[in-house]
Design a protein that fits this description.
about 500 residues, alpha/beta, Immunoglobulin-like, TIM Barrel, 9-stranded mixed sheet, 8-stranded parallel β-barrel, 11 helices, about 25% helix
Length: about 500
């Protein structure tokens, strides 16, 4: 009996211990659920196929010093699915003459005494370019190889600069450069370039950008546009500005000459880290939204229909707070992807151009991971370049309506005739998320491939983009999980 009692007591003790241990063990966390809906019958906008662009850097995209020739640049651009190339770039555009009188060949030189004139890697003392830079003829060969459309920026701002470091270009010189460039490109070479932008960030006071007013810019735009169209009346005029410039441009002498408003769209001031981006619920394309609103509210009835918007520059660069390090990593790539996906969903947007292919420090070492650069020194894509290619290579005929009940976001593109549907699902949360998705007005049954873009953390500078599922059966409802900090793409076909 004693032995039995001891065994019984031991059993009870073990049972109690087990129960207590069970009580103190935390329950497995429940994976958050987001309900997504996709309606392929509800079209947000019909796409032109020209929505994705990038700023070319003529100083680096044929540079011997970085080991990249323009053929390698073209290959990188094709990997991203780029369809618009902005040339010669951003801030350097206002210090760029494509040639010199008699304008018979592409022979770049600078218009002013400041950057990049002073950089001996690219320019000789007489302000003529070294052979390493990507001249206009070489740029057009890149356009041919990538089947991309040029967006050309003509120098404008330097004539208003207060700098006294040397002679400034006159308006007549800048007009001659613009007019003769149109003549050389479209008459002599017969390229048929449509998009011509007058100046870069003329509202931003730097060494040669800015230093003018909206009203003066509006007058100058009218003069430049008329002179350039005297050579080729078919060209489209792109003007730059910001919210408080649009009324003067849309109601002044330039209004009838304008085809597109161009904005520089970088992070909103509310975003100062990945965490603030993760929690942010507002628009990532504020400047684009303001430009569209200005067209709708300030332009005449005829101009409202005609004038569109171009993001001449965008990136998830933290220029304002300067607290989110501008490293080319998974976190910034997710943010840049969302900026682009938002943009291409806006009916008024013509194209959005990432800034930039590669900046001037894109040679080796840590600078090769700068957020400014979509392309590494070896020609391979950085994280933002890869994320851009997810959209660039998989946009179809139209963007269709999606809804979400949580932080997970979905963008959808559809081809009606072939009944192909591509879904882009963004999880910017730092944890796994569960998605319950309903797809309406689509085929009853389909097959899909699943691709994933993710990494070890938001700081991962080498995230992976791989196919994870092939030819899986699907129906109207799907239930699946998303990795933390990821983009998931579903390619759906009947």
């Amino acid at each position: 009996m004693t032995k039995s009692k001891n065994i019984l007591a031991l059993g009870l003790a073990l049972l109690i211990l087990a129960c207590n241990n069970k009580q103190i063990q935390p329950a497995a966390p429940e994976i958050p659920v987001t309900n997504l809906t996709v309606d392929v019958s509800s079209v947000v906008r019909v796409l032109s196929g020209k929505e994705l662009g990038i700023n070319v850097n003529y100083l680096m995209d044929d540079a011997v010093l970085s080991g990249n020739d323009h053929d390698k640049t073209a290959e990188s651009l094709k990997q991203m699915g780029i369809k618009i190339l902005r040339y010669p770039g951003g801030e350097k555009s206002d210090n760029y003459y494509f040639s010199s009188p008699p304008y018979s060949t592409a022979a770049p030189r600078t218009a002013f005494c400041t950057f990049p004139t002073t950089d001996a890697r690219f320019y000789n003392p007489d302000q003529t370019a070294r052979s390493e830079v990507l001249d206009f003829d070489e740029f057009m060969s890149v356009c041919d190889k990538t089947q991309a459309q040029p967006l050309v920026v003509v120098a404008y701002d330097a004539m208003y600069s207060p700098w006294t470091c040397g002679p400034k270009p006159t308006k007549s010189q800048l007009l001659a450069n613009a007019v003769e460039w149109v003549r050389y490109a479209n008459i002599t070479k017969k390229h048929g370039i449509k998009l011509w932008m007058i100046g870069n960030e003329s509202w931003l006071e730097t060494s040669y950008n800015g230093f003018t007013t909206a009203s003066q810019y509006a007058k100058d735009v009218a003069e430049f546009a008329d002179a350039m169209r005297s050579v080729d009346p078919s060209i489209k005029i792109v003007v730059n500005g910001k919210a408080d410039w649009w009324p003067a441009l849309l109601n002044g002498p330039s209004a009838s000459r304008i085809d597109y408003l161009a904005v520089s769209n970088y992070l909103p001031i509310q975003i100062s880290s990945y965490e603030t981006y993760r929690r942010y619920t507002g628009s990532l394309n504020t400047e684009t939204d303001l430009a569209i609103a200005a067209i709708n509210n300030a332009a005449s009835a005829a101009d409202k229909e005609r004038i569109g918007v171009i993001e001449s520059e965008y990136n998830s660069i933290d220029f304002l707070n300067k607290t989110w390090p501008n490293r080319n990593n998974l976190g910034h790539a997710l943010c840049s992807f969302e900026m682009l996906a938002e943009s291409v969903s806006k009916p008024k947007l013509h194209t959005a151009c990432l800034w930039t292919t590669r900046w001037i420090e894109n040679t080796s070492g840590p600078q090769a991971l700068n957020l400014y650069d979509a392309v590494k020194p070896n020609g391979q894509l950085n994280a933002t370049g890869i994320s851009m290619g997810i959209l660039g290579n998989h946009l179809l005929e139209s963007m269709v309506t999606t809804t979400s009940t949580g932080r997970v976001k979905c963008y959808a593109t559809y081809a009606k005739d072939s009944k192909h549907l591509n879904l882009f699902i963004l999880n910017r949360e730092t944890s796994v998320q569960r998605v319950k998705m309903n797809i309406s007005s689509f085929v009853n049954s389909y097959r899909f491939d699943r691709w994933g873009f993710t990494g070890t953390s938001t700081d991962d500078a080498a995230p992976s983009w791989v196919k994870t599922t092939e030819n899986q059966a699907g129906s109207g409802d799907l239930d699946f999980t998303l990795p933390a900090n990821s983009i998931t793409m579903l390619v759906c076909k009947p």
